[in-house]
Amino acid sequence: MDAFNNFLAGTVTLFSDPVGILIFFGGVVGGMLFGAIPGVSMLTLAAILLPFTAHLSPEHGIMLFSVIYCTGVYGGAITAILFNIPGAPENAPTAFDGYPMTLNGEAGKAVGAAVMCSAIGGVASCIVMMAATAAIADWAISAFGPPEIFALVFFGLAVAASVGAKSFWKGWLSIMAGLMVAVVGLDPVGGIERYNFDMPYLAAGIHFIPTILGFFAVSEIFVQAEKKATGSYKAPKLSVDFPTFKELWQHKIAVIRSAIIGFFCGVLPGIGATLAAFMGYNEAVRWSKDREGFGKGKIEGVISSETANNAATGAAMIPLLALGLPGGALTAMMVGVFQMHDMEPGPLVFLNSPDLVWVVFAAMFFANLSILLVGFLEAKTIVNLLRIPFQYLAPLILLLATVGAYAVRGLTIDVVVMFVAGVAGFFLRRSGYSVAGIVLGLILGKIGEQTFAQAMQMLHFEFTGFFERPIALGLLIAGFITILASIYGAFFKKVPVSTPTADG
Amino acid sequence: MGRLTKGQIVEVAFWLILAAFFFAYSFEFNNDIEIYKYGATLWPRTILLLIAVAAIGQLLDQRKNGDTAASNTMAAAHEDSAQETEYNSLGWYINTFILLSLPFIYMTVPDMYIEKAGIPEEGIAKVKIIAGIVLFLIYLAICWRNHVGAILTLPLFFAAMMEDMGFYALAPVFIIGVMILMGERRITRMAMIMPLIYGILIAFFVSILYVGLPTGYISPFYEFGSWMVNTFQDVFSK
Asked: Would B165 disulfide with which of B82, B138, B179, B216, CB 3.0-4.6 Å?
């Protein structure tokens, strides 16, 4: 009941302040637009806005970022579906089935499913967040130390290795390539420079925003350019035929399952919506009777991924506000907003600034609801982007990506890195590797190494220490089983074919 | 049992060589960390070991199952797989590699020459512009019959030259270049679309969001970039 009263108070505060209302709607529209414009993302918008939040109150600054987070995660699904360009890594699994749906002339259905499921996942997550923040935060504090987080990262990477690539081995190599990219820069324990090849730029590590833009946006342009050159380019078919309620109702179990997965992935620090989306998608495949249909344009793939990633947004605020641990790039920027106002996110925020917490919670709830209203209107407009011929869209996307990569740190070398990542992504994709796997490895690599180092120090460098921690042990075993099952499947569950290809 | 193709062997060799190279380089930072006995190398070396294991696993899998190796996982990447076209031959790869190296030559060789020859500050612009023109002409000569290589290289050229010549001067050329490479041949359409894309981008990012895009530092590109920024910001501030 306390939570409900606090929520009402937060809602009144939010909507009785004209500046607050303006910032709220600016965040809703901005997050959706930047999420939906190919080549830029909510992270680009957040990076651009970050310096300006110094002029806002802490409530408005954090609220703006939390609203952008909710609507931006949804907005990224639009580009994933229409152009195979996920707005953020958490939208990558959405593209697996969303883009084939577009090619099949079902873009409207895929976008409609994304709108509905993003709203459902986000609202459900907000309700649980408001009702159970304290209890979940307490549980996470006591149950999840570095060994558990490392084990969870390992499990997540093991699952992700089986998604998106042509084979398990290529999936695994994609993840490892991402982990190696994350190694470049300073080591997280001793601050020793690794693989900088005497280049000052590499000493600080490779920034993930140019890399993500390169692997997704730029490599997609290259892939489409090759198709145009070889005459195999298929223009996406235009459709604004949204799914019926009956169609969505058929997938209610997938929605509920993904909402639960999304919430639990989101609540764990450092994991966030990306793993949620991959796990939501993977579980949908695992439980489906028509596994072969995934990756070819199955609406259930879009539903699972989008429910899970939006369900993670509310949950991701729990470690941020309760422990001061960001769950991903955008929540990390929120830490920056706190710091600009001489505040530290953590348990003290609940004591010292309860108004801030509840205004943010209320804003996130209404931002998710507004996806339903504004999202449908926006989607109807955005789908028309498909009418633009690709030869005009391509330079626009490449230049938007250029601005996005440059705006992060004001370095032209980031633009070079982005295009190098784009070329690498092009060659890796045509060889059947997963660019989403590389990006996941890149993002989770730093957290994985850091938590491994902390875990080993905590366990006095005894690997057997993991056996005394049931959650960590369970996750490690689940990860190993996933890998072994994939290897078994790779060697023993196929019909051998001895048809060499033309290049041999 | 499937017969391994050249492509599959080259792919596995690539991963193994990459792993060996990075393993050898890891001795460069193999320093002790007082509070962490595994040092800075355990993590990357474990990843490299796993890369080698996965590469060998892929080789064995492909040897056993042929080209369909392990295709029981999600097929999302299948669409992107290379088709048997002119863009998949050894000659194409060599041609593309040469093309891709041109922007990096621009980023390194003129600077080395300027340093070695002791070129004064006022001569730097001339060296950079001449290097840019020469390399771009080489690019045009080589990419004539390599459409895909051309589109892969053009953005890298754009990025490599941006530090010196700025976003504002290069973007119009880049937009037209991409449109041509994507198949547009109608001059009137290009003349209409280029200013539209350029104008929208600059109006939105420079005039409204105040994103400071690079103006370059060599003349006359720097002057042009600064003039564009001032003009657009003046127009929108009025």
From this structure: B216
Whole-angstrom Cα distance, residue B201 to residue A481?
50
Q: Does B217 touch chain A (CB under 8 A)?
A: no
Cβ contacts of A391 on chain B, cutoff 8 Å: 178-179, 182-184
pLDDT beyond 60 at A351? yes
A492-504 residues labelled b (16+ CB within 10 A) or e (exposed): eebeeeeebeeee
Contact between residue A79 and residue A87 where contact means Cβ atoms under 8 Å apart:
yes
Give this complex's ipTM.
0.90
More confident residue, A93 or A417: A417
Neighbouring CB atoms inside 10 A of B34's CB total 7
| Nearest CA-CA distance, residue A12 and chain B, Å | 31
Please say whether the beta carbons of A32 and A316 come within 8 A.
Answer: no
Q: Give counts: helices (H), strands (E), chain B.
A: 8, 0
Tell me B87's DSSP state. G
What are the chain B neighbours of A410 within 8 Å (beta carbons)? Answer: 212
Q: Is A278 helix (H, G, I), strand (E, B) or coil?
A: helix
Q: Does A230 touch chain B (CB under 8 A)?
A: yes
Measure the N-to-C terminal CA separation of chain B; round to a whole number of Å.
74
Question: CA–CA separation, A450 vs A146, rounded Å?
Answer: 8
Token pair listed for A89: 């890594």
Tell me the C-alpha distance between B101 and B97, whole Å: 6
Q: Is B118 within 8 Å of chain A by CB?
A: no
Q: Which of A166, A173, A81 is nearest to A118 (CA)?
A: A81
CA A43 – CA A408 distance, rounded (Å): 9
pLDDT digits (tens, 9 = 90+) for B119-164: 888 888 889 999 999 999 999 998 888 888 999 999 999 999 999 9
Nearest to A169 by CA among A492, A432, A503, A436: A432
CB A53 within 8 A of CB A337: yes
